[in-house]
Design a protein that fits this description.
- The protein is α/β, with parallel strands linked by helices and 501 residues long.
- Helices cover 30% and strands 21% of the residues.
- It folds into 2 domains: 294 residues, FAD/NAD(P)-binding domain; 186 residues, FAD/NAD(P)-binding domain (3-Layer(bba) Sandwich).
- Helix 5 crosses helix 10.
Length: 501
Amino acid sequence: MNRISTTHFDVVIVGAGLSGIGAACHLRRMCPNRTFTLLESRDAVGGTWDLYRYPGIRSDSDMHTLGYDFKPWRAEKAIADGPAILDYVNEAADEHDVRPHIRLNRRLDRAAWSTEDAHWDLDVACTNDDLPERITCNLLLMCSGYYSYDEPYRPTFEGEEDFEGAMFHPQLWPENLDYRGKRVVVIGSGATAMTVVPAMADDVEHITMLQRSPTYVISRPDKDIIANTLRKILPESLAYRITRFKNIELQRRVYRKTRTDPQKVKDFLLGQVQKHLGPDFDVEKHFTPSYDPWDQRLCLIPNADLFDAIKAGKASVVTDQIDRVTKKGIRLASGEELEADIIIVATGLNLKVLGGVQFSVDDDPVHFQDTYTYKGMMYSDVPNLVQTFGYINASWTLRADLTAEYTCRLLNRMNELGVRQCTPVLRDEDRSMPKRPWIEGFSAGYMQRMMHLFPKQGDRVPWLNTQNYHADRKMVRQAPLEDGVLTFSNPPNAERVSRAS
């Protein structure tokens, strides 16, 4: 019988996507003497940008803020396609010598913390049929994203078994799908649908975006003229910092305006859609949501590509309910029939709490819905665990960078103090805090379906999951780590000291 050997690291990073590779680069720069590994359940680096293969896959944030703070985005297009982003992530891994630390086809199933040993005991399954592995680490950094890579959100529709064409979710895009000259219906009105429709429009007979309700959209050029000009006249790193600052400020001001004067923002957004599509287009029906801007994410339309496809007659938008799927397409509640050879079910994601891993602390299971989040990165009474979860109102990587910085600062402080454990602990006055949702004021269905399983936030610092990059940056880089809540403990000689006393 084969015996499973144990390997120990100072840090284990779970996930080798945009966040995980970035975290590893920060470790290499800020904690060069720490041992670490990255566990990636798939067979390639890149996460989302390697997983999704649908036509037109691209960022919905500009790459000067979705990119890393330490690695300038050099391409002309600021709204980048998936392959370009994947290249960028792989470049970062190579430039910082991260690749030798990556273990592909490794899925973390269980993590058990031992206070006595001051480490996490990890059960790691090998998804390529190799023997399972046992790894221990002092600190666990979860960078596995927030949704299931295996099971997208895919509702079933009455009659879909009768459909004679191809019907699938874009997360599971069929290899070598030939859609040339076909009639296509895309169910959904989110970022994926608004990417797929214009990307396929020139090659299909016709493509229809079928939505139950509209989403706010905004068109921007895919090239940042200011960024491209600055890069020609300034050192690359300085040009990047200036562009990044400009775009962060723009994101912040737009979001703040949606909170203080939502009607003005709504009027502006709808006015721009009407301007693009003309006075005869029914913007109220097809592009006017029932909620205020940024109660859900805005969808970005680079270079007005969706609007151009609609005006050219290659694409259309239908706002209605689905009655049933038929042999030849979809029958709507209104009685209208949409004929289709292909139906793409772009209905969103299934969220996962910390990658679906089973956690325990000293043999007691951790139920994260019963914990409070500490600064949006750690959890009450759970030692040496940090999670990366980006912003909903700004680019994901802005917070991923800060979380990695905070982790490095924490590791270095633990080393200075000569301790092995750091645990956020509720103060007496914190125990009666209300349990507020992990994310508030964001009505998107993919969030609301799973929010009850996420950690809670309180009503005071540091038990808040802020959505404020400027406040978080100040906290991460300047606020003292010893704040009366984060408890440092468990020196290596704790047992010997205890006996001597």
